[in-house]
Specification:
By secondary structure, this protein is mostly helical. The chain is 77% helix and 1% strand.
């Protein structure tokens, strides 16, 4: 059912990603095999797979939230700094010995609330989301630093959280939260009207206006959805850190998330994509990084190769997309 609602390029991207993820798992297994038995390499691959949901949960949740926003033709470039604010709020709660559950909740609400407020600012100020969230990219990081300097006694740049109870969501619950959140997103895409309206908004705003839709209100609902998922991502990300450093945490996070969303088949200009594609895109990037860890010792070489891999996959699909459009024009 979900495949029938996708455009041909999105379906093709899903097939590429499934094949790519399987291929990456085989490459990881091949890298683990030298110097070990078949059973031993298989066991180590199993360990990688078991750790995968926890390690990629923050990126996947944030990517799903950003997918909904991009569908409407908007974007949020501030999510890395938003996570830093969530970390600052968590650090303040911890330093004042607030109950862990309250720390988790405040982190989620702070991060999610900022993303939702971005949507409201776009609606009220009539300024493109690109401009509003680009400003937030710098401003929210500054807010995070102000909060920890004022709210954490004796803060010297970072805060260590040794108690295991403060890391329960990020380490013990991450996989379950991820499964539930991904399931909710896919179910909403299948059975609810709002995700289809987000796609319609990004595809043709003029047509939506002719049908009497309030586009600014529709954009706000996408930011609210994105806020929920980014808030969950912040809670899992922060609670999986032993040291909280708002100046450095989640640097470049938004770039990785945007790359995963686009890699999953979502059009960066809106109107096309799927949550399932985003899930597969995040998984592909994660497995690609794991493969490079085993295959290359040089960190900089791994970063360069990862960028080239993303460019190659998306570029090849875009070439096929253009060829398809030309064939349709010739008919």
């Amino acid at each position: 059912m979900i495949l029938n609602r996708m455009t041909s390029p999105v379906r093709r991207r899903l097939l590429w990603l499934v094949a790519g993820n399987v291929s990456l798992l085989l490459v990881i297994f091949a890298c683990l095999l030298p110097g070990d038995t078949f059973a031993g390499a298989l066991s180590r691959l199993g360990t990688v797979l078991v750790d995968t949901p926890r390690n990629m949960a923050p990126e996947m949740l944030a990517a799903i939230g950003l997918t909904a926003i991009i569908w409407t033709g908007a974007i949020d470039l501030s999510i890395g700094s938003v996570l830093a604010v969530g970390g600052a709020v968590f650090a303040m709660g911890y330093s004042h010995e607030i109950h862990p559950v309250m720390c988790f909740a405040c982190c989620l609400l702070a991060a999610g609330g900022l993303v939702a407020s971005n949507g409201l600012l776009v609606r009220w100020l009539k300024i493109p989301a690109l401009i509003v969230t680009l400003a937030g990219l710098a401003a929210y990081r500054g807010v995070a630093l102000v909060l920890v300097n004022l709210g954490v006694p004796g803060f010297d740049g970072n805060l260590t959280v040794p108690e295991e109870i403060y890391r329960v969501p990020g380490r013990d619950w991450a996989a379950w939260i991820l499964v539930a959140a991904v399931g909710m997103a896919i179910v909403s895409e299948l059975f609810f009207r709002t995700p289809r309206l987000w796609l319609a908004h990004g595809s043709s705003s003029s047509a939506c206006r002719l049908h009497g839709l309030d586009l600014s209100k529709l954009s706000v609902t996408a930011f609210l959805f994105g806020g929920l998922y980014v808030g969950l991502a912040a809670m899992l990300y922060v609670s999986n850190q032993q040291t909280i450093d708002p100046a450095r945490m989640a640097l470049g996070f938004e770039l990785t998330v945007i790359a995963a969303v686009v890699l999953g088949g979502t059009n960066i200009f809106g109107g096309e994509g799927s949550f399932l594609g985003t899930v597969l895109g995040v998984l592909f990037l994660y497995l690609a990084r794991q493969t490079l860890v085993y295959a290359l010792d040089d960190v900089h070489a791994r970063q360069a190769f990862e960028g080239a891999l993303i460019l190659g996959v998306i570029g090849f699909d875009c070439v096929l997309h253009r060829v398809e459009h030309r064939m349709e024009e010739l008919k």
